[in-house]
Design goal:
The protein is an alpha+beta fold and 171 residues long. It folds into 2 domains: 31 residues, no CATH class; 108 residues, Immunoglobulin-like (Sandwich). It is built from 3 helices and 9 strands.
Amino acid sequence: MKRAIVAALLVLSLAACGDKGSSTAMKEAPKPETAMKAPAPAADKTAAEEKAVQRTPSPAGAKVFFILPADGATVHSPVAVEFGVEGMTIAPAGSDDPNSGHHHVLIDTKLEDYDAPIPSDEKHKHFGGGQTEAALDLTPGKHTLQLILGDKNHIPHDPPVESEVITVNVE
């Protein structure tokens, strides 16, 4: 009877180890390619994906441009600038009007992140009131200017509606 109990326990122990009851079979080690596999990605969105910005679509052919000053112009500060737009309308920041946005002027810089709000500083001027003209205080010398239309949240549209970069010489 004791032998039967010991034998049963041995069989159960080996079965729990995955040995299928054979006392002479050795358990094969997992193959390196399967042992080191990373877990499959979760189907749920990550926190970063949930915080991702949704860019507002822009209509095909929409564009912004400088009416003033002309590319290569020699000007005096404050520099009069006038903005033009085609294929969209200008609306104040926060407006949900379809196919609309507001102007931002980039001075001597390029936009680094099209998926985030355009910064507001000395190199990134916001015209969130829907302005189409302004006076920019620029130091003497050469400067580059570029217009980018931002949506209600100051985020560039998708695809971006941006002007060519122009250069002005301030005397």
